[in-house]
Amino acid sequence: MTRQIFRYENYTTRQDPTVEPEYSAECVGDQQACGEKSGKRSAANDVDDWMREHMRDAGHRHFRRSFEDFAELELTAGIPTALEPARFQRPRP
Ligand SMILES: [Zn+2]
Fold first, then answer.
1. Which one, 62, 76, 85, 91, has the greatest CB density within 10 A?
2. Distance between CA 83 and CA 55 in Å, rounded?
3. What is the 3-state secondary structure (H, E, C) of 30-50?
4. Cβ distance 45 to 92 under 8 Å?
5. How far is the CA of 50 from the centre of ligand 1 (A)?
6. Cα 64 to the chain's mean position, in Å?
7. Contact, 16 vs 72, CB < 8 A?
8. How far apart are the C-alpha atoms of 74 and 10, rounded to whole Å?
9. Residue 24 forms beta bridges with which residues?
10. pTM here?
């Protein structure tokens, strides 16, 4: 019989600080689809500015906004809570 040892570690998901998140918007039109896109921007305010300009130029007021970022898993200390010793009363005969 072979004995196996499993090692579990805790990781926390966080936004990767080395990569800037990206913001964008797409005009979905009012009565019919428009499809005009802002392109990727580095700040939410830049997307707001684009939407206002598009509303001024095309009169459209409905958009689908997107936010994309990169994530990483960071090792954290401690035993995963799922692996802590069970706390229960054993039945007695
Ligand atoms: Zn539009």
1. 62
2. 55
3. CCCCCCCECCCECCHHHHHHH
4. no
5. 11
6. 16
7. yes
8. 8
9. 66
10. 0.67
- Find the 42 Cα to ligand 1 centroid distance in Å: 21
User: What is the distance in A from the centroid of ligand 1 to the CA of 21?
Assistant: 24
Pair of tokens at residue 69:
């970022």
Residue carrying the six token digits 């001024």: 56
Separation of CA 62 and ligand 1 centre (Å): 8
Distance CA 31, CA 13 (A): 41
Q: How far is the CA of 58 from the centre of ligand 1 (A)?
A: 6
Spatial separation of the C-alpha atoms in residues 55 and 40, rounded to whole Å: 18
Residue 76, CA atoms < 13 Å, CB-side half-sphere? 11
12-52 pLDDT, tens digit each: 899 999 999 999 999 998 888 899 999 999 999 999 999 99
